[in-house]
């Protein structure tokens, strides 16, 4: 799906200058917001200046209509205050800045003052409200929530290889889902392989616990093996078949159909038991 | 216009999130009630880390097992053929 809709050209030339200063990922959201607010060139969104921390990035979710609307509304109220704001825009945000507190509420209503909440180590999620945005509790909490989500998406992007090349929530989620499925398959496959190392397999109908001692004796008799190996195998057996959702695919089934050479000793130990169980759908 | 577009992708995103939720091991317990996205993402993070650990663990065991086996034995042959897939 096209992730470009929030990258798409909302940029007006008045904000071009500001955009140049900002890191790339902030551009899209800032651009969209700027276009809607219709501010003139000297107004800035206060974004690039004092949010150097790693979490200074803007929320990347698509701008919801609520945001658009609130910005529009404030714009109308703002005009009188624009001049006042402009000259002291930096000071205003700096003055309000209090890195430690969670949220700072200014008296509601017509006052739309830039609030800054910096993400810090005290455990709170800090959100920056841009100029002209609503500062009522709903929007603030919504913004906090979105910020949290975007932080976690970034973390996941770091975990999933190849994910940082991708942009757009949907694509990232897609990558994450693929990766998780891939890892799950890997685990399953590895467990199967380890399980199939043991030529002695339990009769599942009876239950693993009952069988553990028996197969051990069989092994000792028929195949000379180091004791450690046997213990390890049993331990692994228990673990491998503990992992609930192992399904026995066709591949595994065919792999267990061993050649002539090995057939002898395998049958001896009753391997056919497990083979029939494996080919049964689980 | 853009609100319509964002609504469509909103649905897609929700769908993806539910899909992700179903993959997580917590999925059975929840019984279908949709947890918050933030929580889900956090659990996904932990789950991915634990899966990675498990894969490393299992690989280590597998190679250890291989190491203890007699190279010419029948079982070694089995394993080799399995790994050859």
UniProtKB/TrEMBL annotation, chain A:
Keywords, A to Z, come to: Nucleus, Transcription, Transcription regulation
Q: Where is this region: Disordered?
A: 39-113
In which residue ranges is the amino acid composition biased (Basic and acidic residues)? 88-101
Could you confirm whether the keyword Transcription regulation appears in this record? yes
Q: Where are the transmembrane segments?
A: none
Q: Which GO terms describe its cellular component?
A: nucleus
- Does the record bear Transferase in its keywords? no
InterPro entries (alphabetical): bHLH_dom, bHLH_ZIP_TF, HLH_DNA-bd_sf
Question: What GO molecular functions are on record for this protein?
Answer: DNA-binding transcription factor activity; protein dimerization activity
> For this UniProt entry, what is the primary localization, expressed as one broad class?
nucleus
Q: Note the superkingdom of the native organism.
A: Eukaryota
Q: Where in the cell is it found?
A: Nucleus
Domain BHLH positions: 133-183
Protein family according to the UniProt entry: Belongs to the bHLH protein family.
Protein name from the UniProt record:
HLH
TrEMBL record, chain B:
Q: Which SUPFAM superfamilies match?
A: HLH, helix-loop-helix DNA-binding domain
A Gene Ontology molecular function term of the record: protein dimerization activity
Q: Which top-level group of life is the source organism from?
A: Eukaryota
Q: Name one Pfam family in it.
A: bHLH_ILI
UniProt keyword annotations, A-Z: Growth regulation, Transcription, Transcription regulation
Q: Which GO terms describe its biological process?
A: regulation of DNA-templated transcription; regulation of growth
> Is Transcription among the key words of this record?
yes
Q: Which family does it belong to?
A: Belongs to the bHLH protein family.
Q: Which PANTHER family match?
A: TRANSCRIPTION FACTOR PRE (PTHR46446), TRANSCRIPTION FACTOR PRE5 (PTHR46446:SF28)
The protein's name in its UniProt record: Transcription factor bHLH135
């Amino acid at each position: 799906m096209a992730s470009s809709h929030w990258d798409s050209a909302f940029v007006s030339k008045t904000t071009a200058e500001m955009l140049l200063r900002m890191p790339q990922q902030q551009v899209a959201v800032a651009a969209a917001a700027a276009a809607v607010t219709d501010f003139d060139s000297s107004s800035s969104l206060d974004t690039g200046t004092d949010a150097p921390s790693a979490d200074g990035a803007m929320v990347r979710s698509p701008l919801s209509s609520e945001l658009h609307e609130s910005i529009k509304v404030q714009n109308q109220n703002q005009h009188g205050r624009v001049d006042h704001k402009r000259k002291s825009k930096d000071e205003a945000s700096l003055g309000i800045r209090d890195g430690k507190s969670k949220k700072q509420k200014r008296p509601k209503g017509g006052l739309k003052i830039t609030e800054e909440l910096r993400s810090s180590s005290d455990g709170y999620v800090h959100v920056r409200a841009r100029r002209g945005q609503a500062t009522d509790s709903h929007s603030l909490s919504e913004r906090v929530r979105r910020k949290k989500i975007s932080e976690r998406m970034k973390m996941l992007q770091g975990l999933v290889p190849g994910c940082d090349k991708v942009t757009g929530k949907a694509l990232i989620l897609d990558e994450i889902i693929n990766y998780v499925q891939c890892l799950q398959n890997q685990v399953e496959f590895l467990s199967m392989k380890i399980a199939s190392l043991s030529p002695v397999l339990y009769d599942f109908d009876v239950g693993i616990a009952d069988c553990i001692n028996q197969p051990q004796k069989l092994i000792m008799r028929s195949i000379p093996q180091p004791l450690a190996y046997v213990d390890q195998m049993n331990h692994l057996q228990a673990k491998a078949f503990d992992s609930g959702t192992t399904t026995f695919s066709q591949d595994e089934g065919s792999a267990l159909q061993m050649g002539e050479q090995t057939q002898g000793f395998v049958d001896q130990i009753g391997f056919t038991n497990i083979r029939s169980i494996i080919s049964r759908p689980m | 216009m853009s609100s319509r577009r964002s609504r469509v992708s909103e649905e897609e995103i929700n769908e993806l999130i539910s899909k992700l939720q179903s993959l997580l091991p917590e999925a059975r317990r929840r019984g279908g009630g949709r947890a918050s996205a933030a929580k889900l993402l956090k659990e996904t993070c932990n789950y991915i880390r634990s899966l990675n650990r498990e894969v490393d663990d299992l690989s280590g065991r597998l190679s250890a097992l291989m190491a203890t086996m007699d190279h010419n034995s029948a079982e070694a042959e089995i394993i080799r053929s399995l790994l050859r897939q």
